[in-house]
Amino acid sequence: MTSTLYDVGIIGAGPAGLACGIEATKLELSHVIIEKGCLVNSLAHYPINMVFFTTPELLEIGGLPLISAHEKPTRLEGLKYYRRAVETYHLNVHQYERVEGVSGFNGDFSIRTRERLGQSRSYKARKLIVATGYYDNPNRLGIPGEDLPKVSHYYTEAHPYYDQEVAVIGGRNSAIETALDLFRNDSHVTLIYRGAEFSNSVKYWIKPDIENRVKRGEIKVHFNTQVIAIKPDAVVIQNSNGKVELKNDFVFALTGYRPDESFLRSMGIELSPIDLKPTLHPESFETNVPGVHMAGSIVAGLKNNEIFIENGRFHGKVILQSIARSLRG
Q: What CA–CA distance (Å, rounded) separates 94 from 3?
């Protein structure tokens, strides 16, 4: 059976991937969006009570209004909005389907996938857009015990950790916000950070809060310190004082995330050895592989403080206009 040949195959159903699908629809180009998890999978794994630090209009895609009950939308409002975008523009989204490989060439790409229940599928597309982000690939510590059940690279809510000894590894926004939320829900929190002080990128209204909690002894902090091992009932840290073992029940290793470089390299996409930024044409976001474009936060490589929903959502229009010109001569 011959697969349908789509004009555009989009890998990733986050805001950037959906924005690409919307622009394809507006330009009357056929498309398929393939997502290994659920719709806007990264947002779905954000903390349950998270509030975006931005106004609703800066999260909008395709000109569809985001209605919020507050000045800044919540995670739940964001999830509802992106579901509505899919329905409004009749986007062809395939969830829980992992891309296992891409072959072919400009004008005739093949995308091999595997569904959640193990069935393999394939799609054909004239052009490809990679919008996979980085949130599914945490920077691992590479230490003994990192795979224990008590360790997580993601934080959702505080309640399960009431009255528990919780270590939070990291000193940037996500780690500090997690530590504060745990503290306010009666966990015993210890922050462990390899830097000499909290990062300068910490949000200006959060930094005084964490500094006051530390000053009062409400949150313990170890600077210039690395975790070298995790045990079922403890974490082992090392700093200028040597090795110290701290009593511990749970660990949140919030040390950042990275693109899936092995997948990108398997497609022939060139990445900077320094920051994993892809080689891209500045006016079309086309990679060194003809016909393959990239959109969203993955464009920034390891510098994931450069591209957010607010600016990555504009990639779709630029890319699809370039693709339309190419396909229509």
A: 15
Does residue 133 sit in the same domain as residue 155? no
**Could you tell me where the beta strands, DSSP code E, fall in the chain?**
5-11, 31-34, 93-94, 97-105, 108-115, 120-130, 151-152, 165-169, 188-192, 220-222, 226-231, 234-239, 242-247, 250-253, 292-294
Q: Give the residue among 275, 285, 290, 287 at the shortest CA–CA distance from 318.
A: 285
What confidence tens digit (pLDDT) does each residue in 58-95 have? 999 999 999 999 999 999 999 999 999 999 999 999 99
DSSP 3: P
Burial class (CB in 10 A: 0-12, 13-18, 19+), 17: buried
Q: How many CB atoms lie within 10 A of CB 281?
A: 11
Q: Residue 157 is encoded by which pair of tokens? A: 């809510």
Show the low-confidence residues of the chain (pLDDT under 50).
Answer: 1
Phi, psi (degrees; rounded to nearest 5) at 208: -60, -35
Q: pLDDT value at position 251?
A: 98
CA distance 213 to 168: 15
For residues 121 and 268, state if they share a domain.
yes
- DSSP 8-state assignment for residue 286: B
Residue 40: the pLDDT is 97
Burial class (CB in 10 A: 0-12, 13-18, 19+), 208: exposed
Q: What is the CATH number of the domain that holds 180?
A: 3.50.50.60
Q: What is the DSSP string of 65-132?
A: ----SSSS-BHHHHHHHHHHHHHHTT--EE-SEEEEEEEEETTEEEEEEEETTS-EEEEEEEEEEE--
| Domain identity same for 127 and 264 | yes
For residues 247-279, one letter each, b for 16 or more C-beta atoms within 10 angstroms of the residue's C-beta and e for the rest, the string is: ebbbbbbbbbbbbebebbeebebebeeeebbbe
